[in-house]
Amino acid sequence: MTAWLLHMAVLLAFPPLLLGIIRKTKALVAGRVGPPIWQTYADIIKQLRKGAVYSSTTTWIFTAGPIVSLASTLSAGLLVPIAARAPLEFTGDIVAFAALLSLGRYFTMAAALDTGSSFEGMGASREATFSAFAEPALFLGLATLCIPVHALSFGDAFRTWPAATSSVAQPALLASAITLFIVLLVDASRIPFDDPSTHLELTMVHEVMILDHGGPDLAFATYGSALKLFVVGNVVVHVLLPVKDGSLATALLLAGQVAVAVLIGLVESVTARLRLSKVPEVLIGATVITALGLITLFYRGRP
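^ that's the sequence the OP posted. Answer follows.
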């Protein structure tokens, strides 16, 4: 019970800090002071205190979009271990993890289309295109964890793999980590695939889909983005640091999450947005990287 409470506390409280770390990293690289790392918490609280305005053309889908997206991402976070066993660990939870992320993405796109705005429809179309190429990469990255150890659960897979020092040297896990990191950038709407801070009409993807949301709905969308960054980042950290259960493991995972946030900030500081026509090529390349990792794993006779 204590481990479950710790899991919930970290899952609920830690994600907004990652967005603050990314912003702070980008500011420091640019030679600026930047906002404090807890700015996202203040933004969410401010949004929760505001009211929401709904167009007469929208239906229940528009109001349900941010709520379902947040709930599905939170449910996905309950499937990946943090302190010990995940609260909802079961055989096949890896498939449920991908399905829950897809469900949240679907309702975000549906809410954008429900406004009847061609502008938000453009963002939903781009999001659907990105996800069509990102999901195969995600499934292959997760398959790298499951197939060799004959497991369909995050907990079983992470407990079966060897210690961190030897797992990093395994090409298959390294390829999976690279692919999952690319998927993380796509799912979290980060550069080079998207820019959550942009307001240029021709380059907006995720931000344009939540453009008509305000007040608590915008708070749910903001918190949901931070939560998705944490949840998918947790899988990346687990691949590189398959540590055992315990308080030390939790501390290492959180340190790994901070390192991932800093890495994202550095990537966004030195790269630019990709042209839309180049995004499928990058995601197909990520899928190929994981496929080669799987081939290497079986060729070398891994268990």
